Amino acid sequence: MKRKMLFALSVVLLLLGAYPYLRHTQLGSCVAYALGGFREVAQERSARFLGKVHEDSARCRGGDQAVAWRNTPWTDWQRYWAAGGAESRTSGLAAKLGLLSLNSRGTNGALLDLEYQRIELLKFNLFDNSGTFEAYVRDRNSPSSDFSKTWPQLRLANDHPLYAKVGGDGPQKCYGELVRFRTVSGICNDIINPLMGATGQPFARNVEFESTFAEMAINEIAKNRHGDRIGLLKPDPQLISRKLFTRAEPFSGKCNEGHGLPEIAAKLNCDYQKAPHLNLLAAFWIQFMTHDWFSHLDEGRNQPAMMAIGCNYHREANHQSNSPPAELQRLGCRPGDRIDKSLIAQDIPAPTFSLGTNSYLARAHRTTANTVTAWWDASQIYGYDETSRRRVKRDPRDPAKLLFETGNPRGQESAGYLPILNSADPINPQWIGQEAVAFPDNWNIGLSFFHNVFAREHNLFVDAFRRETRTRPEADSGLRRPDQPDRAIAHKDITAGELFEVARLVIAAEIAKIHTIEWTTQLLYNEPLYLAMNANWSGLLEKHPLASAALEQVVHRFAELDSGRKSAQWYAAFAAGPGIVGLGNTQPDIHGGVNHFGSPFNFPEEFINAYRLHPMIPDVIEFRELRSDANVIKSKIAVAETVRGKATQAMRRHGMANWALSMGRQRLGQLTLHNHPHFLQNLSMPRLKSASGKIDVPALDILRDRERGIPRYNEYRRQYGLKQLTSFDDFIDPRQAKNSAQWAEQKRVAELLRETYGQHPCDASKIITTAQKNDDGTGINDCLGHSDGSLVDNIEDVDAMVGWLAEFARPHGFAISETQFKVFILNASRRLFSDRFLTSSFRPAFYTNLGYRWVNENGPDGKIMEKMKSNGHFVEVSPLKRVLLRTIPELKTELVAVINVFDPWARDRGEYYSLQWKPRRGAEADVAFKTK
Q: What number of other Cβ atoms are within 10 A of residue 930's Cβ?
């Protein structure tokens, strides 16, 4: 033993002695990196980790390419080893050194960077709008205190029908049947804060309240940042849509705003920029999700008052001026467009409070309410209030099931379809002819597809449970009543109403799992994110159950500590080991796995901004037929002809299997500028009764963000702990060779941004942010590093959505931008941490034994593994693939070669996160792979 210790000491001394000569080598950098220890978590927001590591860390994790990347505004980890495609990996002996290999150093370094970002986001980016923020700030500034876990603002009011049942005037706590299943309105998910996440609660923020609604110029820093250059219609939102969002139309006349022309309908063609590794199912999936998570509308309505949507002004020589009619006509503008104003819950002035010498806003100047529940509870299917629940049809023959009507006239789809809304249902005129679902607004073919799929899955679960009941009627179902946790409930004793609610729990958890480990890992298609998202669900130590169980005990120990911020930080970090889902489900306390990190959970307005993903939708669906040749596009159907009631008609006419095939094989649109659908810029909206009768949806996206106080792009990045940009040229990807075609195109976009948003002479005396500082510790001023008085780009005025669509420098396989991803790092994990039914109440006592297995094993038949590796991993047959095989069994042959349902079904995935667009075996004849 002594000999080994002396040898180790000698090696360390030798390395230290040689360090000056090894300083700029990988070995020397790795020694410095190892000896440097862990980074400290920032104590104040302006000193936080910006995704930029020390030179030694970068070289050890990614070599000189990572070191060079440190000089860009973009996070470093994307240039680490194994964080990209096959070209980023090493092979041979160097890849077999375990944790010391280049590949491991790269991916582990990336995961470490991501975890630091999550910890600091949880520390600096939680701003609740419901009145609890003052308590949060006081807790945060008192190192000896624990974070609050109950808030008086989240009690049920005395006029609530369940007021007495949760404790009335005394301490409120949910009991009995209120905690047994998900409630319609979302109350009692958090047992001690009944209103948290419930329908009607205010949206939160992820940014300082002072940074919101900058156009009001109430805050001196905001005045310095923008001057008088911004407003609700400054710069003009519809002109931004037309100049920066419109798709090129090389097939003259064959698109016609996404509708084509009657005489050339067979040749309908609307080109778009395509993502190589995501299909159209992925585009519609996210709308299916957002209908569950958030809505600003009340039964499809905003305020009755109307407002202009723009197209009256343009920027010329850095000044706003009226646009001449010829210019408006050339751009396709419609000055007559009108839209209803947003619903506002609270208006200015925002109250303030003081702590020490600092003054704080207690909420944003304006707030809006989430008119659906904030929980991952499949409320778009099952309802979020009593009105929406009335649209949900139960099968009178078996009330545990959802009602279905017979299949289509061609004899396909024997499982049937959801019924149609009728005059007795609470509906708006624009919903006539659609399927009966809880959230019927903005209906389209993709929403029709997923609602029918998961309604079928609901009924299949009920059928499977009924079979178990027939086989073993007296057996323990696993279900328990919270007031009698030790009393077994037999299969035969579960009522139809109870089984319906269990099925809802199962479907909601399945959807959450699909989104976390299937949709997101295809959207963010690289190794670090594959590991990170699976860690969110099942943990980094999934294959090491003993270590996972031990680490879970550590997590619970931190949850019990009365050490405020420190315990919250460590809780978030160590939860990656056992995984968030199921945390605490072996403990007696059914609420014990929940952690809100000191601030009540609801979605922030910035999260909604980050999900404005309309470029994903093409103007035309390439329709295929499963029983014919799947490689042949039979026809082209305008997406505009598959919205509202037309979606329901199209679904029944062509059948779910054909729509699955068509959307599964077609690529979605890239999230970039100049790629919004034509039909969305020219969407018919008769209900508005405006002069044009249409609406420009991309322009409306910008207008809504401004109405809701979303910070403009540069401050948005600073608030989330990302490096700022200093000019429009910073958007150009540093990896592009100058004078290449890609560089030239990106340079053209930078010039167009300059033309749209303008420039101004800067004033170095004006500090423009408190969220971040320059690298030398000085305040960031109006000149952004340029000389005082020079003409600088109005990068501060760029709308957040425009900015993140303009990001060309993205990590490998990222369909979204780095900026959007930062929003997801915080909120994707937080909605799991906060949801009792996905943490400590994720157990058989709520889901039944069958339901618990169903979610964990992707169905009733146990875990099934794919026959081949995917990106170096042995993987299970994915949850959505199993769902489709159960609900649309006709897809069995088509899905054999599919690993991830959101990857185009005919694409060859390659060996390691390939982005190539080439056919898999058997799909060589698919016309989508033929060069134009």
A: 8
Percent of the chain topping pLDDT 70: 89
Among residues 53, 16, 13, 9, which one has the least CA distance to residue 31? 16
Checking if the pLDDT of 567 tops 70, the result is no
pTM over 0.90: yes
The pLDDT, as a whole number, for residue 127 is: 97
Read off the amino acid at residue 893: T
Distance CA 333, CA 310 (A): 9
In 776-834, at which residue ranges do the beta strands (DSSP E only) sit? 791-793
Burial class (CB in 10 A: 0-12, 13-18, 19+), 342: middle
**Percent of the residues in the chain that have a pLDDT greater than 90, as a whole number:** 77
Q: Which residues contact 629 (CB under 8 A, 6 or more apart)?
A: 925
Strand partners, 319: 316
CB atoms within 10 A of CB 344: 16
Question: Could you count the other beta carbons within 10 Å of the beta carbon of residue 928?
Answer: 18
**CB neighbours (10 Å) of residue 756?**
20
Helix (H) or strand (E) holding 398: strand 398-402
Virtual CA dihedral for 781, 785, 791, 796, nearest 10 degrees?
-50
Question: Which residues have a Cβ under 8 Å from the Cβ of 751 and sit 6 or more positions away?
Answer: 728
Question: Parallel, antiparallel, or unpaired: how do β-strands 274-279 and 791-793 relate?
Answer: unpaired
ω into 429 cis (within 30 of 0): no
Amino acid at 158: N
Q: What is the pLDDT of residue 576?
A: 62
Q: Which residue has the tokens 């995704």?
A: 51
Count Cβ atoms below 10 Å from residue 170 Cβ, excluding itself: 7
SS3 content of the chain, % helix, strand, coil (to 5): 45, 10, 45
HEC per residue, 485-541: CCCCCEHHHCCHHHHHHHHHHHHHHHHHHHHHHHHHHHHECCHHHHHHHHHHHCCCC
Q: How confident is the model at residue 411 (pLDDT cuts 50, 70, 90)?
A: very low
Residue 190 and residue 693: Cα distance in Å, rounded?
A: 44
Segment 324-354, tens digit of pLDDT: 777 777 888 899 999 999 999 999 889 999 9
* pLDDT confidence of residue 555: 44
Mean pLDDT in residue range 201-226? 94
